[in-house]
Design brief:
- With 144 residues, the chain is α/β, with parallel strands linked by helices.
- It has one domain: Collagenase (Catalytic Domain) (3-Layer(aba) Sandwich).
- The protein is 44% helix and 26% strand.
- It is built from 4 helices and 7 strands.
- The strands form 2 sheets. The chain has a 4-stranded mixed sheet with strand order 1-2-4-3, covered by helices on one side. Strands 5-6-7 form a 3-stranded antiparallel sheet.
- Strand 3 and strand 4 form a beta hairpin.
- Helix 1 packs across helix 3 and helix 3 crosses helix 4.
- The longest helix is centred in the C-terminal third of the chain and has 23 residues.
- The model has no long low-confidence stretch (mean pLDDT 94).
């Protein structure tokens, strides 16, 4: 896996890349051949109502958008969450599609899913991964 961070300072890019690498390793996807491009986007939460988004761009590129205003603690949580979606996309569990009228929909494990946002299985998995990855990171940091 190759991770590129775009749109922020060198120091912040280093932090984001380290957190993304840790999350990918914790989720067992580090050895994947995809290129992950992470973009730091001003006001993402305001414009897209999300702190992070994931989309497959090509067969070998996955794009992650992160709100540029996230503090370091929030970055841990949001990157853990979004990298769970990266894992789901890599493993072909989660697909986005668009209807002819431009409405977005989701396919989860081969089935169209119309659950409410809070009940979407991929979101439940991502929310559950947040504390798992964050706790692994805290334990690593505590060892010094």
């Amino acid at each position: 896996m190759e991770i590129k961070v775009i749109g922020c300072s060198k120091a912040r890019a280093g932090l984001i890349k380290a957190l993304a690498t840790f999350s990918a390793q914790a989720l067992g996807i580090w050895n994947d051949s995809n290129i992950i491009k992470i973009y730091s986007i001003p006001k993402l939460k305001k414009t897209r109502k999300a702190y992070g988004l994931v989309a497959r761009m090509t067969h070998s590129e996955i794009r992650v958008l992160l709100d540029s205003r996230l503090d370091p603690e929030a970055l841990v949580t949001v990157i853990a969450h979004e990298f769970t979606h990266v894992k789901q996309v890599i493993r072909q569990e989660l697909f986005a599609y668009f209807t002819l009228k431009g409405k977005q929909g989701w396919i989860w494990n081969g089935k169209i899913n119309k659950a409410a946002y809070a009940n979407m299985p991929w979101e439940i998995e991502a929310r559950n991964a947040e504390p798992y990855i964050a706790n692994k990171l805290r334990k690593l940091l505590a060892k010094g």
